[in-house]
Amino acid sequence: MSRVYNNLADLYETREELSQALLHYRKALEIKGDLATPYVSAGDIFSKLGDYYSAFILYGKGARHLPDDEGLRKSREEAEKGWKQKMLLYFDLSSSRIPDPYRYRLQRIGEAVRSKPGRKRVTVVGYTCDLGPQGYNRRLSRRRAEAVARTLKN
Fold first, then answer.
1. Which of 65, 92, 103, 152 is least enclosed, having the fewest CB within 10 Å?
2. Whole-number Å distance between alpha carbons of 41 and 63
C-alpha cells in the first residue's frame, strides 16, 4: 500500500500539486518508514521550494536506506549548502510569532554570526500570502522580519 501512495505522490508532483504530493509521501512513510524513495522525493520538493533545511533532513533520512547513492549524497550536500545561506520560516496565519521549530535554529545562527569577528551582515526579508488587505500584509511582513531579527540578535 505504501508504494501506491508513493506512486500517487509522484503523479501529484508531476502535476505540480506539491502539497498533495507531500501528503501522499507522508502516507507512504507512515505505512512503511524504511523506503528511501518518499524521503528523497519529498526532499526534492522542499529543495524546489527553497526550503533547503527540510530537504537536507529528508535526504538524510533517505540516505539511511540508500547509504551508497552518489546522487542522493550530492543532493544532500547541495541542500546543506543552501540552508546555510537561506532559511525559510513558515508562520501561522496572521502571526509574527516565530514557531518553535524555527526558534532554536535561528538562535544557533545568531550565535554563529555573533561569534565571528569582523563585520556581520544578515539579510532578513518578511513575506505574507496575498490574502487580506495590502497594507495589513505589509505591516505583518515587517513584524515577521523584525521578530526574526530580534531572535538573531539575542
1. 92
2. 12
